[in-house]
């Protein structure tokens, strides 16, 4: 490669000498074998821009006809012109020289002289005078950016050179017009590398991108590089510069909120139709405000999966906030961003914007490194699939996306395709990662005689660990249990000989050998399905409104699936399990007026039935101690509020906020306690509960004391005010008497002596007597 | 019942009924009301419910109210006379009704208006009644006979009216409407020429924001006016100048009512709050918050209580159920600003509330066209906040 360059430059310089002389005219350069990269001191006559300047210069001569510019200025101009001309090919010199006397002639004629005196020194720079014109001055362009070098070209003799040129032309003119080519020769044979020049640098870049690695035949695979790259890589210093050390930014403890003595949780609230965002400590008595900002976000906010960051949305991108004071931690510039997704490990952020996408620079979806703030990779977004388009594996090692007939799995941190290729799965409809291991579940629908298929695949080995064939399938939905212990595939089928859709639940027991599958058949339409987190129960809402029932099932250790309990006539359309399992809230959101049922599934009792009229959202806190129901301004315009309940369904607070929009609990990272420690805590629960009960009593009595105290001061203040007012009132007694002619009206019965008593009786019962024969 | 009225006005006196005064013949008889007599019902047991927030018992007025059906359109204002034996009601129909507050029997009507009646007031000795209407008139009536004593023509609808403390001066304010400004006019009844010539002795122009509610201040030295912008102004009744100006509300002030001793007043505003002010200084004292526009608020004469009436705005009502409209009358403690009771009943927003001067009952008039007289049950009087 180095040879190529060394050879190329002198040769190019030689060739250039020739056309320079033949260029007075603004003709397009003849299309002969010349190469124009500039060598040292090369005249700028080459590019088309340069030739246009020549034209301008040639015409500039007669231009100052009307008003002859000051002599000196003109001289200067003429000088510069002459200079420019002399820099050009010799032919121009004549015309410039000719122009000068003509201009002088005109100036001398009958026009008044505007000439500067001899000793005038013009202190105005040209830049100042004609800045705007000079800006458009043709720039020096050597065209070197448009040149590419192609290696591994077959070495041929003159006899076959023509043919080679044809082939090369065919391949490379795809990327743009080739204005020039050069085939270095040695001993009558080409040297195996060639130079091509395009009309513009963009074409050259395009050619490098697309033709590099082009296989001409078995022996010849093209290597295409930009000519300028050689320069760049040649000048790399041999000495390694030690990168400058980035100062460490101490952001404080990003997890400080976990150290709160009372173990309270935080939540974010957006209200005033999105104008204000607040963070609160959740407290049994009243929420305690931590931070409130106006216009913190333009649309909504999101917490990262472990609660470290709060993401806010802006027209120009995403900002992450955290630490005790909610300082800005990172910014990601993505114009028009609409959706985001965090990797479960909080290392990466995926952002989506419908703007910004260009053909050769994918920017619709960008994956960012949260810690550095750098863009890791951009993707196009062709399909309007459901967000998140990229689904992350539980540990953040892989992420996958589904396109037509393909499943592309990428790995971190390289962001490249796993094993450099996507999986071809024709007809793939949906996929989902196991939350408990690097297993992907996907399903393909029936295709003529081939049954529908649900496949579980281990990654990165791509080993299929379980395939289940299903018949007459209409639709499948994949539901993983939170730990990845079970997978439920909800299968809608139309069995032969029956009408209507039948739903089956195919329960995969992931933790057992061979992954056994059991089937639960449902007779009614399914409204909602949800696994118990950290447990082996699931809840199903089924039936048609208004006859909706909820059933709780238990997957036993031997694989038997048992119906524990069914409640009928439920007002519910959504199931919300507590994050710790066991407790569940069945909610009839929106159209069902916000009916709520709090159920304990350990013995399947309904603890409480309540209602939050028109509730649109239900949010469990991350510990499963509290539930928030809310009426969001986004779905309903009046009574926007959020209510706090205990997990048992006891209403603790009603928080009315003007145009309340959204409440999100701050997630907690997974516990660091081992299973044994948790068990131990559960065993000693009595011991702890005593402490907590005492604490509660204390705070409760304190609270009521505070309340009483507050009321007392309020009452005292009010009494003081009333006393003052009444004193004034008493002072005015005489005036009042005067105004009302001496009648004391201060008390309702103050002039009772004047009254005459009169007895009036009233009807106490009603009797309607028909008045004769009315009809 | 003790009545201040002289023996003459009862007509047949101690008969089973006070005889119908002759002018009642002109009263509009609503379908279904002919030949029937109002009923005094037995008050039902009150319901005690635990307030979920504070755990305190919450008095819900469970008594059966007396329903007054005398209007065909929504009620605009209701007012007791000073003694509380009579209740005046006006509505968006041209009828002005007066009722016996004790049993809800209609005493009669004042006929003459041709448009919606916005306001009503009676003087301290219940001799005169003043009404203002959208038919661009303010009328003075003889309370007892129903005779129209004066007709004051205006250029635009009369929004508020009132007698001063001594009952000698009347005040009314007109709407900014049809190119006319909002004015407050003052007439001295002792000078008949003012009425005859329709020439008020003072007319205060109000250019910025129109007056939506106004009352006389204590001793008739000033009037207190609430504006569409939420501002409160105290105008001198002698010079017309603005004595005090405050802005505590962010939206229109729908109603102003004085306490019995006139030392303080409560405002009801579209900004979902009612506020208590000192009537001399206009100093803000207390705020009572709800989730709906407040149309009216009244102070209890003998307890530190305030009742608020309101609900979702009338124009939105048809689109929502009564349940979401929150058409309840709500009781707040004056000092603690805490709500302690609610009374349901109306199926539209409450437009006007009034406390009986003895504090044992209150009335509410609603967008639904009904006036309800509620008597409190014993629990109301026993209820006390823990303090």
From TrEMBL, chain A:
InterPro entries per the UniProt record, alphabetical: EIF3B, eIF3B_RRM, Nucleotide-bd_a/b_plait_sf, RBD_domain_sf, RRM_dom, TIF_beta_prop-like, WD40/YVTN_repeat-like_dom_sf
Signal peptide extent: none
The encoding gene: EIF3B
Domain notes: The RRM domain mediates interaction with EIF3J.
GO MF annotation terms: RNA binding; translation initiation factor activity; translation initiation factor binding
GO biological process: formation of cytoplasmic translation initiation complex
Comp. bias intervals (Low complexity): 37-61, 84-98
Protein family per UniProt: Belongs to the eIF-3 subunit B family.
Keyword field contains Protein transport: no
Region (Disordered): 1-119
Keywords recorded for this protein, A-Z: Cytoplasm, Initiation factor, Phosphoprotein, Protein biosynthesis, Repeat, RNA-binding, WD repeat
Protein name (Swiss-Prot/TrEMBL): Eukaryotic translation initiation factor 3 subunit B
PTM comment, free text: Phosphorylated. Phosphorylation is enhanced upon serum stimulation.
Functional summary from the UniProt entry: Component of the eukaryotic translation initiation factor 3 (eIF-3) complex, which is involved in protein synthesis and, together with other initiation factors, stimulates binding of mRNA and methionyl-tRNAi to the 40S ribosome.
Residues of the RRM domain: 146-229
Alphabetical list of HAMAP family matching this protein: eIF3b
Biased composition annotated in UniProt, kind: Acidic residues: 107-119
From TrEMBL, chain B:
Post-translational modification: Phosphorylated by TGF-beta type II receptor.
WD repeat start-end pairs: 68-109, 110-151, 246-287, 343-373
Chief location: cytoplasm
Domain of life (superkingdom): Eukaryota
Gene Ontology CC: eukaryotic 43S preinitiation complex; eukaryotic 48S preinitiation complex; eukaryotic translation initiation factor 3 complex, eIF3m; synapse
A biological-process GO annotation: formation of cytoplasmic translation initiation complex
GO MF terms held by the record: RNA binding; translation initiation factor activity
Transmembrane segments: none
Cellular localisation: Cytoplasm
Keyword annotations from UniProtKB, A to Z: Cytoplasm, Initiation factor, Phosphoprotein, Protein biosynthesis, Repeat, WD repeat
Summary of subunit composition and partner proteins: Component of the eukaryotic translation initiation factor 3 (eIF-3) complex, which is composed of 13 subunits: EIF3A, EIF3B, EIF3C, EIF3D, EIF3E, EIF3F, EIF3G, EIF3H, EIF3I, EIF3J, EIF3K, EIF3L and EIF3M. The eIF-3 complex appears to include 3 stable modules: module A is composed of EIF3A, EIF3B, EIF3G and EIF3I; module B is composed of EIF3F, EIF3H, and EIF3M; and module C is composed of EIF3C, EIF3D, EIF3E, EIF3K and EIF3L. EIF3C of module C binds EIF3B of module A and EIF3H of module B, thereby linking the three modules. EIF3J is a labile subunit that binds to the eIF-3 complex via EIF3B.
Known role: Component of the eukaryotic translation initiation factor 3 (eIF-3) complex, which is required for several steps in the initiation of protein synthesis. The eIF-3 complex associates with the 40S ribosome and facilitates the recruitment of eIF-1, eIF-1A, eIF-2:GTP:methionyl-tRNAi and eIF-5 to form the 43S pre-initiation complex (43S PIC). The eIF-3 complex stimulates mRNA recruitment to the 43S PIC and scanning of the mRNA for AUG recognition.
The family this protein is said to belong to: Belongs to the WD repeat STRAP family. Belongs to the eIF-3 subunit I family.
Matching PANTHER family: EUKARYOTIC TRANSLATION INITIATION FACTOR 3 SUBUNIT I
Record protein name field: Eukaryotic translation initiation factor 3 subunit I
Record organism: Rhinopithecus roxellana
């Amino acid at each position: 490669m180095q040879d190529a360059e060394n050879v190329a430059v002198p040769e190019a310089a030689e060739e250039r000498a020739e056309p320079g002389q033949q260029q007075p005219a603004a003709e397009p350069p003849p299309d002969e074998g010349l190469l124009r990269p500039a060598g040292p001191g090369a005249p700028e006559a080459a590019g088309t821009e340069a030739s246009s300047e020549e034209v301008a210069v040639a015409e500039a001569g007669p231009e100052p006809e009307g008003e002859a510019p000051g002599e000196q200025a003109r001289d200067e101009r003429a000088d510069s012109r002459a200079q420019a001309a002399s820099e050009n090919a010799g032919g121009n010199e004549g015309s410039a020289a000719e122009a000068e006397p003509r201009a002088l002639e005109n100036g001398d004629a009958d026009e008044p002289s505007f000439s500067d005196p001899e000793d005038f020194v013009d202190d105005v720079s040209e830049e100042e005078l004609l800045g705007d014109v000079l800006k458009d001055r043709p720039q020096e362009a050597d065209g070197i950016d448009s040149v590419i070098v192609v290696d591994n070209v077959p070495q041929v003799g003159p006899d076959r050179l023509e043919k080679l040129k044809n082939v090369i032309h065919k391949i490379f003119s795809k990327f743009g017009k080739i204005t020039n080519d050069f085939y270095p020769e040695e001993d009558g044979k080409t040297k195996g590398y060639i130079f091509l020049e395009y009309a513009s640098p963009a074409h050259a870049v395009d050619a490098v991108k697309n033709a590099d690695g082009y296989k001409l035949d078995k022996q010849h695979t093209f290597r295409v590089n930009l000519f300028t790259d050689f320069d760049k890589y040649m000048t790399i210093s041999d000495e390694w510069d030690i990168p400058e050390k980035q100062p460490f930014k101490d952001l404080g403890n990003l997890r400080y909120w976990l150290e709160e003595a009372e173990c309270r949780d935080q939540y974010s609230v957006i209200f005033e139709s999105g104008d204000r965002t607040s963070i609160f400590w959740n407290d049994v008595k009243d929420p305690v405000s931590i931070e409130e900002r106006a216009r913190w976000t333009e649309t909504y906010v999101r917490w990262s999966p472990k609660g470290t960051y709060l993401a806010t949305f802006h027209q120009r991108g995403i900002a992450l906030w955290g630490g005790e004071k909610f300082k800005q931690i990172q910014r990601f510039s993505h114009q028009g961003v609409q959706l985001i997704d965090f990797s479960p490990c909080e290392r990466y952020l995926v952002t989506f914007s419908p703007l910004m996408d260009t053909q050769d620079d994918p920017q619709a979806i960008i994956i960012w490194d949260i810690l550095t703030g750098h863009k890791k990779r951009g993707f196009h977004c062709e399909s309007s699939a459901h967000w998140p388009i990229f689904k992350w594996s539980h540990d953040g090692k892989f992420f996958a996306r589904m396109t037509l007939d393909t499943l592309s799995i990428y790995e971190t941190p390289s962001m490249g395709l796993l094993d450099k290729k996507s999986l071809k799965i024709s007809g793939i409809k949906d996929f989902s990662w196991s939350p408990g291991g690097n297993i992907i579940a996907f399903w393909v629908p029936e295709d003529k005689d081939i049954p529908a298929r649900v496949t579980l695949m281990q990654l990165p080995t791509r080993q299929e660990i379980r395939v289940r064939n299903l018949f007459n399938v209409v639709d499948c939905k994949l539901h993983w249990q939170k730990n990845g212990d079970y997978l439920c595939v909800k299968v809608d089928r139309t069995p032969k000989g029956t009408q209507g859709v039948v739903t089956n639940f195919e329960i995969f027991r992931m933790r057992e050998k061979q992954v056994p599958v059991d089937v639960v058949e449902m007779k009614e339409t399914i409204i909602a399905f949800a696994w118990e987190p950290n447990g082996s129960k699931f809840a199903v809402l089924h039936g048609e409104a208004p006859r909706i029932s909820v059933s709780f099932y238990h997957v036993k250790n031997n694989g038997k699936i048992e119906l524990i309990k069914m409640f009928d006539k439920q007002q519910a359309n959504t199931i919300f399990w507590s994050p710790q399992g066991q407790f569940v809230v069945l909610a009839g959101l929106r159209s069902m007026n916000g009916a709520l049922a709090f159920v304990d599934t350990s013995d399947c009792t309904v603890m409480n039935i309540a209602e939050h009229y028109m509730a649109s959202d239900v949010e469990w806190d991350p510990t499963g101690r509290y539930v928030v129901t809310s009426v969001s301004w986004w779905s309903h315009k009046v009574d926007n509020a959020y209510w706090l309940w205990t997990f048992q369904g006891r209403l603790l607070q009603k928080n009315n906020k003007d145009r309340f929009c959204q409440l999100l609990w701050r997630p907690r990272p997974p516990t660091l306690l081992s299973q044994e420690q948790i068990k131990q805590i559960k065993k000693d629960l009595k011991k702890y509960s005593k402490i907590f009960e005492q604490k509660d009593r204390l705070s409760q009595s304190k609270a009521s004391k505070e309340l009483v105290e507050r009321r007392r001061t309020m009452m005292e203040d009010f009494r003081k005010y009333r006393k003052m007012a009444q004193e004034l009132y008493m002072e005015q007694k005489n005036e009042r008497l005067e105004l009302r002619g001496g009648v004391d009206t201060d008390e309702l019965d103050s002039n009772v002596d004047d009254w005459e008593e009169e007895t009036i009786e009233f009807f106490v019962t009603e009797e309607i007597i028909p008045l004769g024969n009315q009809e | 019942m003790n009545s201040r009225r002289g023996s003459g006005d009862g007509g047949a006196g101690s008969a089973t009924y006070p005889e119908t005064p002759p002018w009642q013949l002109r009263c509009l008889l609503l379908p279904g009301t002919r030949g029937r007599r109002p009923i005094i019902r037995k008050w039902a047991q009150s319901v005690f419910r635990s307030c979920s927030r504070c755990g305190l018992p919450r008095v819900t007025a469970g008594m059966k109210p007396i329903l007054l059906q005398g209007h065909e359109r929504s009620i605009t204002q209701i007012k007791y006379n000073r003694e509380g034996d009579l209740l005046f009601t006006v509505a968006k129909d041209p009828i002005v009704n007066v009722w016996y507050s004790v049993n809800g029997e209609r005493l009669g009507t004042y006929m003459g208006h041709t448009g919606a009646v916005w306001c009503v007031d009676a003087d301290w000795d219940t001799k005169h009644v003043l009404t203002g209407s959208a038919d661009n008139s303010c009328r003075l009536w003889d309370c007892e006979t129903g005779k129209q004593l004066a007709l004051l023509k205006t250029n635009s609808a009369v929004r508020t009216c009132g007698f001063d403390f001594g009952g000698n001066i009347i005040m009314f304010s007109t709407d900014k409407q049809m190119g006319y400004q909002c004015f407050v006019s003052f007439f001295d009844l002792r000078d008949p020429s003012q009425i005859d010539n329709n020439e008020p002795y003072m007319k205060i122009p109000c250019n910025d924001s129109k007056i939506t509610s106004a009352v006389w201040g204590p001793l008739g030295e000033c009037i207190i006016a609430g504006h569409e912008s939420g501002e409160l102004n105290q105008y001198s009744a002698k010079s017309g100048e603005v004595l005090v100006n405050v802005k505590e509300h962010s939206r229109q002030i729908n109603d102003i009512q004085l306490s019995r001793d006139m030392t303080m007043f409560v405002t009801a505003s579209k900004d979902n709050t009612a506020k208590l002010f000192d009537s001399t200084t206009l100093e803000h004292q207390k705020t009572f918050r709800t989730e709906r526009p407040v149309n009216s608020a009244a102070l209890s004469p003998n307890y530190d209580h305030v009742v608020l009436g309101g609900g979702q705005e009338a124009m939105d009502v048809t689109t929502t159920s009564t349940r979401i409209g929150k058409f309840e009358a709500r009781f707040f403690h004056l000092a603690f600003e805490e709500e302690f009771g609610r009374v349901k009943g109306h199926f539209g927003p409450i437009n006007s509330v009034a406390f009986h001067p003895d504090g044992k009952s209150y009335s509410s008039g609603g967008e639904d066209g009904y006036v309800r007289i509620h008597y409190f049950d014993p629990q109301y009087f026993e209820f006390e906040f823990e303090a």
